[in-house]
Amino acid sequence: MSAVGERTAAPGSAAPPAGRGGRLWGQLLRIGFAAGRGGPGDRLRFWALFAAAVAVAVVALGSVAAIATYDGRAARDEARGPVLTDRSQDAVALWRESFDAVGEVQHSVIYVSPLKPDAPPPPGLTRWPAPGEAALSPELVRQGEQERIITRYGHFAGTIGKSGLVSPSERFAYVRPAQPASELLKSDSWQYATGFGRAYPMGEGLNGRPLGQLLLTLGVLTGLPALSLLVVAARVGSRTRDRRSGLLQALGGTWRHRAVVNTGEAALPIAAGTVLAILPMLVAMSTDLRIPPTGYLLDSGDLRAAWPMTVAALPASFAVSLGAVVLLHRVQRDGTATRPRSFTSRIPRWRLYGCGAGIALVAISQYFRGTPGLLAFAFGTVAMWALLPSVAAAAGRALGSRFAARGFANGRPGQLIGGRWTVAHPGVVVRLAIAMVIGLGLICQIQVWNSRLGEKAAAARASEARVGDGVLTVYSRDITPPAIRDLAGSLPAGAALLSLDTNPEQPAPLLQGSCDALRSLGLPCPIATETAEGGDRRLEEIRNWYGPQLRIRVVPSDLPLDRLYGQLLVIPDAPGQQAAVERAALAAVPAVNVETLGENWLTGASNKARLNNWILLFGSLGLALLLLAGTMSAAAEFVRVRHVLAPLAVLTGSDRVFRSVALWHLTVPLLIATFITGVVSAWHSLFFIAVVQEGSFSWSVLAGAMAGCAALAVAVGLLGGRTAARAAHHWRPAAD
Hints:
The protein has four domains: 23-79 and 210-220 and 232-336, no CATH class; 82-198, no CATH class; 342-452 and 603-736, no CATH class; 479-589, no CATH class. The protein is 59% helix and 10% strand. A seven-stranded mixed beta sheet has the order 1-7-2-3-6-4-5. A six-stranded mixed beta sheet has the order 13-12-11-14-10-15. Strand 11 (496-501) and strand 12 form a beta hairpin. Helix 13 runs antiparallel to helix 23 (656-692). It has helices at residues 2-7, 18-35, 40-80, 138-143, 181-184, 211-235, 239-250, 255-276, 278-286, 300-305, 307-328, 349-364, 371-410, 413-424, 426-450, 455-467, 481-490, 515-519, 537-546, 578-588, 599-645, 648-652, 656-692, 699-728; strands at residues 82-85, 93-102, 105-114, 133-136, 155-159, 172-175, 191-196, 289-291, 296-298, 472-475, 496-501, 510-513, 551-554, 566-571, 593-596. Mean pLDDT is 81; it is low at 1-18 and 333-344. The chain is an alpha+beta fold.
């Protein structure tokens, strides 16, 4: 260590030779590398740093994958978008967009009809579909197998190639109507297209979110827990490491010397973790990878095209992890202590003020609209949850002094020692409580997000439970009297056809049909008045959706249908006939919509649920990282507790003191942190619901989560006492 002293010599002394300085840095690196392969505490630190490096690198590579995916989606979306025109002489095809659903997931159906034989087909198709043919995406074929989706739009012409889909998991269809172009032009719903190659929102692009929102969600729900794990891993260490840092300072070593030693100690586990994190990326580059629970398929081609960003992300994540370890390993500069600082004696006030500022930012976010309000809420939430463990530790420290005083007065050594330790080491509570605090917040937020169903969607769900597909609506502005006759002749046997006029200028919606159709709804025929009561459950469901004052009229001949406000109702005589009705309707009228009552609300809720699945994915990963951080921190605390408590066996002659100290020092502060976090989580969730005016808060979910955290707090105390008791049996005095 003489070299360290030479490096810190007085300014007037001669500088050490360059070779000696180089040997010094090499020696310090070797010291750090050897220290990383030391005792049990160092092994724990190795695996903690390894896990933290994996987490940080995975988040970095996840960001790269998101950017690459959005770039690829934008390019393919622009390549397939129609170039629309009003000039029929310039057009090469007719184009029309419609929507359909498989299950409760909506997809785009693009109707095309070429006007010129040499017109190039849309990207993803090797040829134009023949009249009456349809080309479907592979995912639509897979998901719609039970509904026989390949026969819904006509003859199956094959699947759409990846170049015509924004993602391999997109549900998409190209359909060419059987009618000639001259017949199609009678409807004003068709548009002229001169080709393809202009961005046009359709397919998955209609329900997507901006890249910034995705990265923000990833950073808040997964990136923050990854950084928390990194902080915990950087603080995990053995007494040997602390003494080594103190010795370096005592010999005149500067922060640069300690940084070199810490670099040598942490470089290997961080490098190993960073390299391991590339494995999922390599798999995703080699094949389209489905991401549970979202069901989304990553395009491997997009990730391969982004290999420069991938290569750059690895050293960047390595540098972040290593830099955090070096910067977080500090010692006091006044020379009064040589152990690394982790606010063992006090909690920095800026942490408490920062938590308060985060809460205030969340509270005032309601006064901002759009992106500013979202950013204020997000940053306030991050600050609040990141610093709330320090608030909980401050509360535990304040109560710890009272516990110690009461233990002294009542002659309880365990309560006395545990209370004083809590006062002296509040940083321990912060490291242990961080997993509980952020985990509780994530659980409550995920529950609130998933509860945002909406009143109409809830009503549609209830209607589906009562009548299923017993009432089907058929709507299109292109339905003509001949089309109604064709549809009536091709419906499944026993199905009834009625018309519904919802013109707002009328006193109430008007339901019309033949006597046989009305009898299928449980009505007598003829009916006494237009506002006749009665009917079966299906008619009652129609009234629920279109108004209790529904008028009913018998029509002896063809059904009248208002072009703007009219729709047809199909009443099958048996469940499970929706697919057959859809095929019949699409054969009669291209781009017709066939839905159950309220199905459009269910598809909207399904789209929202699929977006919530991303929150569930990122939140679950974040929660797993937080639990890992808590496990690492608890394991490190066990190592410290068993060494410190072991000499008490000589003084007390009993193992009970170990359990008592561990419970008062570990369990009680964690229970306090759980209570504070539960209160803040409830306020945060209820505030969010009040702002967005949607969703519900489950007190049972919060109670269950708090009960789990309380059980974990008890388990941490019991395990700490047990490990200390076992170590006490093998403890021998040493000259340290």
